[in-house]
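Morning F.,

Quick status update on the modeling queue. The single chain you submitted on Monday has been processed. Sequence for confirmation:
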Amino acid sequence: MGNFHYLPQKRPFIWERKAWGASDPTGYLYPLGTVEQITIHHTVSAAKPPFEEVKSVQRYHMQKEPDPFFDIGYHFLVDRAASIDGRDIYEGRQRQSNGVLSQGAHVAGRNQGNIGVAVLGNYEDEPFSEGQRRVLVDLLAWLCYLYSVPFSEIRAHRDFSPTSCPGRHLYTELDGIRQELVDRLVAREGPPDRTVNIVVNGQPLNLEPQAVLVNGTAVAPVRPLAEAQGAHVRWNASTRTVYLDSNGK
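Structure tokens below.
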């Protein structure tokens, strides 16, 4: 994409652990380390009022057999569609005493430097709503800006493990979400490159003036493009009409 930097992003509203009644960790949590990735999950949890559902996810993680977690595995959680109201994100795993993120428990063997973001619900079966997408993009934009995470490193749980997580309906949204983040976060140094490459019968065509992208449409000069196909071009100024004769006459 050339030289660019991330535009500043506002921190979205996030419910703190004490708001949803988080239990204290039962063991030592290591620092997350340098953030390199963000992994998207779904919780496949039973629908409940949001605070109760987040609490139930923590309880499930901390009672897992045979290896219970010390705390909820995810760093952040996003509401179900029915609960989206502008205050839709929950702080998950307890931070370190200095405020930095702790290492999560959400991708076996890949938790160091990896932020876990989970959406409440089952998106193998349930549709992923536009409201949830908006909230998720707000959260991811802030995290990418804060930790300089490359867009290519916003991954799905299934990218690392044999699982359907985060569900087919959410998984199919991720490419579009990454592109939305590019559009929102990237500030290029200098004017954007709008040139378009033209290839005729497998051969690059050098046009003058060059073809460019205008509002999503490729615009190219007619004469060199037509003549490259063996057509004869005539211009009638009085009627403002371009004639293309494929027989070359």
